[in-house]
């Protein structure tokens, strides 16, 4: 295989990493702040894709790209208010059971209403076609997708690191008790973070609908890989999740490039295994007292 | 972090709970005839399993509406087979606790194998409606297992004949993408034997994990290899992912495949579906009986039946015919089914029969060809269906030439 193709494969692997990033980032945020392992996160990704399928005929793709993540974020905040709030102080096992059940309810509801067969969803015609960069040919839609993902991830970074909102969220991740002692209630922040996290999952759902099958189990499909990214990246670290997502994409692309595609998923788990063995906190995980 | 041990315990409990969902009541001899229906309803084969269940329900309704079998109603006990281990456990329970006279269903070749081991021990027929692996008809064949679904070799021959007629085999380069499990491996072997026999070359071949949704890395390799044909040995939702992204990456080589489901074409949508693919049956098959089935199915479920629906619908009617003739005893049923004198109306232009050597239902197959986006009358008719293969003057046996699964002996 020539060097050029190899480089193209690695670049494609990096780009593939964005697929995991949008899901894993929300998962990590919700867990870091509230301690809830949201097993229903994939289900909100599926909801995003199905809402896109439902609404695109009326609104068109680009409005849907804005409206659906907001709708899913709203659903996420409602879920947080009605369900998650009861479990922040409880044993993590309970919230695990809760979100596992919620994921099943959402998946089965989609299956009951839409059927198990994937729904046909085509990409907007302005984004079809390919982009030629010398010998490297790439899908125009994917470049658009990545541009949206980068913009959104950058926006989340600014929100967390350059605003008063972000300061409180970061303080809440480190030490909620001190924050409480200073008279700041975390409740609205917990809701907002759940909304942002699940809204990101919903956005991923809309972005993936044109290229992946839209079917009820799509959430379960992505969830395990997203967890792997969070574990590799480390809790509480924004950049940890970003680096881990790109790394996972890279490793997967590398395995396929060298002709070991059957091992491409296994390699990701092996990567997690090695990281856990050498650095249990994850690549860039911060030391968070209440999780130690 | 978490309490790991408790987490593990809870996860185990959840998994167990899913496997032990309660079944129907205990068996009674004078009650209805119980038939077990076991097929994957979740996972990457779930969309096909849903059609299987709808078709089995419809067939049972029809059989009961016509007065049952010799006056006895049938009752279908339905379960999600999930994976090979769970499939075997559930088959065992259907037989031990519900006393089903036969099991119908399955799509995964790996699960069909474990079910057939259980049914052979219990001496109850198992009518496989969706698993294609040649090995199930060869080295792993079982006396109590009958295959309503066509086997890989039949698809390879049907699709191969088409590709040959298009001049895409002799001296041409193929790129093969293969689902990484029993079905795909088996199909890859069959394809390689076909290429050896017909002087075709392999430009590249990759195994694709069944949970993979992104094909971009594969498509970059395909583009680099510049094949004359891209052939898919993929399965379930993989085919949909592949078709959508093949269009997305603008690859030009003709596409075909040896394994296919019309649900995958419908899910990819008219903009993305391309190529020519083999199939056991489609809703376009132009016989009176097929069109009656399509109408009944569409009236009941609001959409036309997929080819998986054909398998389970036909299997239920074949089983009903056999029970009507010889009763519910397992040995008697095997004797009836494997006798090639006993033919079955499978809604095609000629009747079908089971090959006594390996219990494969000998029947016509078809190829479907994508219509260009502008010429599709509706969301279902995005392809056309060929005339039956083989041609009317050819015997059905031509379809099983060069099967690669080994020799069947019912001793094992």
TrEMBL record, chain A:
Cellular compartments per GO CC: plasma membrane
Keyword Cell membrane: yes
Entry's transmembrane regions: 20-40, 47-73, 93-114, 143-160, 189-210, 222-248, 254-278
GO biological processes: amino acid transport
Superkingdom, natural source: Bacteria
Protein's membrane topology: Multi-pass membrane protein
Subcellular location: Cell membrane
Coiled coil start-end: none
Gene Ontology terms, MF aspect: transmembrane transporter activity
Main location per the UniProt record: membrane
Keywords: Amino-acid transport, Cell membrane, Membrane, Transmembrane, Transmembrane helix, Transport
Family from the record: Belongs to the binding-protein-dependent transport system permease family. LivHM subfamily.
PANTHER family cross-referenced by the UniProt entry: ABC TRANSPORTER ATP-BINDING PROTEIN, BRANCHED-CHAIN AMINO ACID TRANSPORT SYSTEM PERMEASE PROTEIN LIVH
Protein name stated in the entry: Amino acid/amide ABC transporter membrane protein 1, HAAT family
From TrEMBL, chain B:
InterPro entries named among the record's database cross-references: BCAA_transport, Leu-bd, Peripla_BP_I
Highest taxon, organism lineage: Bacteria
Signal peptide: 1-27
Coiled-coil zones: none
Keyword Phosphoprotein among UniProt keywords: no
BP-aspect Gene Ontology terms: amino acid transport
Pfam family, one: Peripla_BP_6
Keywords, alphabetical: Amino-acid transport, Signal, Transport
Membrane-traversing stretches: none
Domain Leucine-binding protein: 32-367
Family: Belongs to the leucine-binding protein family.
Protein name stated in the entry: Amino acid/amide ABC transporter substrate-binding protein, HAAT family
């Amino acid at each position: 295989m020539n060097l050029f193709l190899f480089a193209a494969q690695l670049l494609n692997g990096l780009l593939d990493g964005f697929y995991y990033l949008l899901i894993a980032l929300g998962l990590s945020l919700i867990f870091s702040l509230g301690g809830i392992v949201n097993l229903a996160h994939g289900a909100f990704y599926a909801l995003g894709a199905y809402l896109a399928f439902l609404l695109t005929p009326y609104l068109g793709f680009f409005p849907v790209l804005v409206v659906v993540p907001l709708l899913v974020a709203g659903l996420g905040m409602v879920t947080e208010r009605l369900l998650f709030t009861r479990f922040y102080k409880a044993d993590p096992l309970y919230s695990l059971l809760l979100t596992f059940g919620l994921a099943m309810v959402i998946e089965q509801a989609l299956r009951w209403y839409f059927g198990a067969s994937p729904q046909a969803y085509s990409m907007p015609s302005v984004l079809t076609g390919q982009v030629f960069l010398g010998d490297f040919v790439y899908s125009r839609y994917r470049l658009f997708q990545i541009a949206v993902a980068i913009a959104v991830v950058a926006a989340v970074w600014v929100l967390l690191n350059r605003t008063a909102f972000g300061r409180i969220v970061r303080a809440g991740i480190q030490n909620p008790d001190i924050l409480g002692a200073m008279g700041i209630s975390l409740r609205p922040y917990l809701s907002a973070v759940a909304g942002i996290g699940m809204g990101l999952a919903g956005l991923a759902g809309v972005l993936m609908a044109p290229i992946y099958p839209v079917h009820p189990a799509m959430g379960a499909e992505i969830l395990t890989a997203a967890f792997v990214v969070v574990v590799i990246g480390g809790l509480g670290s924004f950049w940890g999740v970003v680096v881990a997502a790109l790394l996972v994409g890279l490793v997967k692309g590398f395995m396929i490039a060298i002709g070991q595609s059957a091992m491409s998923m296994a390699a990701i788990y092996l990567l997690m295994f090695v990281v856990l063995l050498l650095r249990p906190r994850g690549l860039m995980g911060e030391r968070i007292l209440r999780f130690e | 972090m978490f309490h790991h041990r408790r987490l593990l315990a809870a996860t185990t409990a959840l998994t167990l709970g899913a496997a032990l969902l309660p079944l129907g009541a205990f068996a009674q001899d004078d009650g209805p005839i119980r038939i077990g229906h076991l097929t994957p309803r979740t996972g990457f084969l779930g969309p096909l399993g849903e059609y299987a269940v709808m078709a089995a329900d419809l067939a049972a309704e029809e059989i009961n509406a016509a007065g049952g079998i010799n006056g006895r109603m049938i009752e279908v006990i339905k379960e999600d087979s999930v994976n090979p281990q769970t499939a075997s456990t559930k088959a065992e329970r259907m037989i031990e606790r519900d006393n089903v006279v036969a099991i119908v269903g399955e799509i995964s070749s790996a699960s069909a194998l474990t079910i057939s081991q259980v049914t052979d021990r219990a001496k109850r027929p198992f009518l496989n409606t969706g698993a294609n692996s040649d090995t199930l008809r060869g080295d792993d064949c079982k006396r109590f297992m009958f295959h309503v679904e066509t086997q890989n070799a039949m698809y390879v021959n049907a699709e191969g004949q088409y590709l040959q007629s298009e001049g895409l085999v002799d001296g041409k380069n193929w790129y093969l993408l293969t689902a990484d499990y029993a079905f795909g491996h088996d199909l890859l072997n069959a394809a390689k034997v076909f290429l050896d026999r017909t002087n075709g070359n392999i430009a590249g071949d990759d195994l694709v994990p069944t949970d993979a949704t992104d094909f971009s890395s594969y498509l970059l390799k395909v583009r680099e290899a510049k094949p004359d044909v891209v052939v898919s040995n993929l399965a379930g939702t993989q085919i949909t992912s592949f078709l959508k992204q093949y269009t997305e990456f603008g690859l030009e080589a003709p596409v075909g495949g040896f394994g296919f489901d019309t649900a995958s074409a419908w899910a990819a949508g008219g903009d993305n579906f391309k190529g020519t693919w083999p199939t056991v049956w489609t809703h376009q098959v132009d016989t009176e009986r097929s069109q009656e089935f399509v109408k009944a199915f569409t009236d009941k479920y609001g959409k036309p039946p997929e080819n998986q629906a054909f398998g389970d619908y036909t299997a239920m009617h074949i089983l009903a015919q056999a029970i009507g003739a010889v009763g519910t005893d397992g040995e008697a049923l095997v004797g009836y089914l494997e006798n090639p004198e006993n033919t079955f109306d499978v809604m095609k232009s000629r009747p079908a029969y089971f090959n006594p050597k390996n219990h494969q239902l000998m029947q016509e197959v078809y190829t479907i060809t994508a219509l260009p986006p502008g010429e599709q009358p509706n969301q279902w008719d995005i392809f056309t269906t060929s005339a039956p293969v083989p041609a009317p003057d050819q015997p059905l046996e031509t379809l099983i030439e060069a099967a690669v699964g080994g020799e069947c002996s019912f001793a094992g």
